[in-house]
Amino acid sequence: MVKATKIELLAPAKDITCGKEAILHGADAVYIGAPAHGARAAASNPIEDIKALTDFAHIYNAKVYVTVNTIIYDNELDETRKMICDLYHAGVDALIVQDMGIMEMDLPPIAMHASTQIDTRTAAKAKFLEQSGFSQIVLARELDTDQIAEIAQQVNVPIEVFVHGALCVSYSGQCYVSQKCFARSANRGECAQFCRLPLTLTDAEGNVIMRDKHLLSLKDLNRSNDLESLLDAGARSLKIEGRLKDANYVKNVTAYYRRKLDEIFARRPEYCKSSSGNIRLAFEPDLNKSFNRGFTNYFPDRSKEGIWSFDTPKSLGEYVGKVKTTSKNAIEIDTATPVHNGDGLCFIDNTGALKGFRVNKVDGKTLHPLEMPKIARGCKLFRNNDAHFNKMLSKESAERRIALCITLQDNAFGFTLSAVDEDGNRASTTFECKKEPAKTDQDGNIKRQLSKLGETPFEATTVTVALNDKWFIPSSALSSARRSLTDAMLVARKANYKRESRKETRHAGLPVKAATYRDNIANRLARQFYNSNGCNDVSPAYELSGQKGATLMECKHCIRYALGYCTKDGRRIPYKEPLRIAMQNGKSFRLQFDCKCCKMLVIDDDVD
């Protein structure tokens, strides 16, 4: 029989609480921010919490990856090296990194994963990263299924792809507009989210085409219906974005994808989950009930239709229905969806702005808002805060149990209680007990006592009583032996857990001989890495150079396409180019369209 390929569901962890909930709700691995140098500066975590999370995760054979995926300056190298050593000793399974200087550090043998910030979109680059010592590679979000397959076929390390969450409009690692406008570098974990701002689009003659629209704001990624094709293309780690999201978001989204994957595995035995334990949920997961800007599956078949959200960068949530009538303090809606007291509803008003209100009372299909909004008949209503659903999630909403087969046997001075878990780990304990013949059959009581594993991460799938005679064993003795057995099994699982070691770093040679600001080289060790790989012409990172005339964004999203003027369709834009986008403070940038490569560039042409 062919051995099943292990598939990893990788969930975000803002903190230790989110990390534990992700694992309990079905994650095979979680990724969490380091104390410093993570690409979400607001989601850093102390070493002590990360160690506690790894101890918890490893019980279930789940992994913990830590993000150290910013660029690093020279004066930060020593502290970064020390932090990485501390993370290794905390039990972390791998680092997710961007800065190639880390690959030149003298470090413990901790595994390295290539962050999406490295911007891997070709097989050649993936092969180079593998040869350089990376043991997992996160691909650019913009790739279609065929491109993912091409890369996966040419490397021997797991390929990781995003399947859910917020989308950066620019290729990750290739966005410098936040640094330009606000001195907050996305490559330093301080993105100011320029892409979510209202922008005005003008032509070369200053004519306004669109005013104060969120022209670079994309909907959220949702590839839940494409999971099987991604697996068949060679993706082995499926990543949920969201290291700034709360525990309720992590619970719901992780549980949803866990269920979808398990349904696939039931039909496709060539795939299996990479961690242990059976998950039971106390709620029905629903992606529409967690924060979302509307959904897009983002180019699996190269289609660009409907990926943008020009009206608002905020969460719309699930569609509820339309306004039927309004009165002084009530709204009657046409809907088949139940609305609850405390729900948050929103709508796009006639100016294109997102408005919202809280439901104070529901009477059938009549809503009584806490404050009556100005809303028109026929207006579409969305629920971006489901009070009833969030109340369920705020409680204990899942449990995860590792299967045990337990056996009770005689020994010369008492009894032996042993177990084997679903992964083949074994543990046993012996206990002395006077052997007195039982007056009545004890098998039922023995099985009940030994099955009481509620305070542990285990569940007894079978309990075998293999005694030579019918002995009476006090329930207190059975309970004590059961506790000793589960403690021993936890020790065994910890002892048998194996971390992947770092692959050897080999200088394989870069396909290019010059590195530009877009290679994000910010320290002497990164320059050393490039030099060692045959690249001697090395320019500093944008954050250090402030490169004039730089390409600040490189996007698959195309405003011209969104307006219906794609030149590949033979259409001509009725405006004089170049087009420009401008912030409300008047600062503007030129748009450049690379139609051959199907990309839009945001150019800084302010060279003063």
Topology diagram in text:
Blueprint: E1 5-13, H1 16-24, E2 29-33, H2 47-59, E3 63-68, H3 77-89, E4 94-97, E5 111-114, H4 123-131, E6 136-138, H5 145-152, E7 159-165, H6 177-182, E8 199-202, E9 208-213, E10 220-222, H7 227-233, E11 235-240, H8 247-267, E12 271-273, E13 278-281, E14 295-296, E15 318-326, E16 331-334, E17 344-348, E18 354-363, E19 366-369, E20 380-385, H9 387-393, E21 398-410, E22 414-421, E23 426-432, E24 436-437, H10 443-450, E25 458-466, E26 471-472, H11 475-496, E27 514-515, H12 524-532, E28 537-538, H13 542-545, E29 551-555, H14 559-562, E30 580-582, E31 588-594, E32 599-603
Parallel strand pairs: 1-2, 1-11, 1-12, 2-3, 3-4, 4-5, 5-6, 6-7, 7-11, 10-14, 21-25, 27-28
Antiparallel strand pairs: 7-10, 8-9, 8-30, 13-21, 15-16, 15-20, 16-19, 17-18, 17-20, 18-19, 21-22, 22-23, 24-26, 29-32, 30-31, 31-32
Helix pairs in contact: 1-2, 1-8, 5-7, 10-11
What is the CATH C-level name of the largest domain?
Alpha Beta
H/I helix tally: 14
Compute the number of strand runs. Answer: 32
How is the CATH topology of the largest domain named?
TIM Barrel
What topology, given as strand order, has the largest sheet?
Answer: 1-2-3-4-5-6-7-11
Strand content: 25-35%
Which structural class do the helices and strands define? alpha/beta
Main β-sheet description = 8 strands, parallel, barrel
Q: Approximately how much helix is present in the residues? A: 10-25%
The total tally of domains equals 4
Shape: globular
Write out the CATH superfamily name of the largest domain.
Aldolase class I
- Write down the Rg: 28 Å
| CATH architecture group name of the largest domain | Alpha-Beta Barrel
Let me know the average pLDDT: 95
The unreliable regions are: none
Distance between the termini: 68 Å
